[in-house]
Specification:
14% strand, 176 residues, Hypothetical Protein Ychn, Chain: A, alpha/beta, globular
């Protein structure tokens, strides 16, 4: 029993520093400075600097009104985390496939008559080399045309098609 208590005490002391971390530990990343803040994780094993990542993000949930889409921002965080960990930016290829309610996060201000808070994030992601596709089936269902989309956003036949093509091109699906 004493060994078990000692082990639990040892484990809690070992893990305590991670409990001290908070929002103040998140800082701007090296690539997309305005979005995707990151925190250092000294206890994480190093990532091979020659690693190559081809990652697809699936975004279906719309942002809260007046806020940026946290799922879209995850792609910025992914880039910032890995470059900060030593992976060259050239070794990161990201694609975002958007469908469902999140479609409105890709539209120009005029489509819904209000400023789109995601416009800056979309532009920053594209500047970092991220491709962004909207599901064409969603677009038709929501009466969104190519002209309604932010610059650089493309239309796919469907989200299913886009993901299948990305997988065939070697992309993995990020589950977050």
């Amino acid at each position: 029993m004493k060994q078990r208590r000692f082990f639990c005490l040892f484990l809690s002391v070992l893990l305590a520093p991670s409990a001290w971390a908070g929002p103040q530990d998140f800082k701007a990343g090296p690539v997309i400075k305005e979005y995707g803040n990151i925190a250092a994780v000294p206890s994480a094993p190093p990532i091979d600097e020659s690693a190559r990542f081809q990652v697809a993000f699936d975004v279906a949930t719309a942002a809260e009104p007046g806020k940026i889409n946290r799922q879209l921002e995850s792609a910025a965080r992914f880039i910032n985390m890995h470059v900060a960990a030593g992976v060259p930016k050239e070794n990161l290829k990201l694609a975002i496939v958007v469908h469902g309610g999140a479609a409105s996060d890709l539209t120009r201000d005029a489509k819904f008559g209000s400023a789109n808070p995601n416009a800056g994030l979309i532009a920053a992601l594209q500047e970092a080399g991220v491709s962004i596709q909207l599901c064409g089936q969603t677009a038709v269902a929501r009466d969104i045309s190519v002209d309604d989309l932010l610059p650089g956003v493309t239309m796919a036949l469907s989200a299913m098609t886009a993901h299948a093509q990305l997988q065939q091109a070697g992309y993995t699906l990020n589950p977050f």
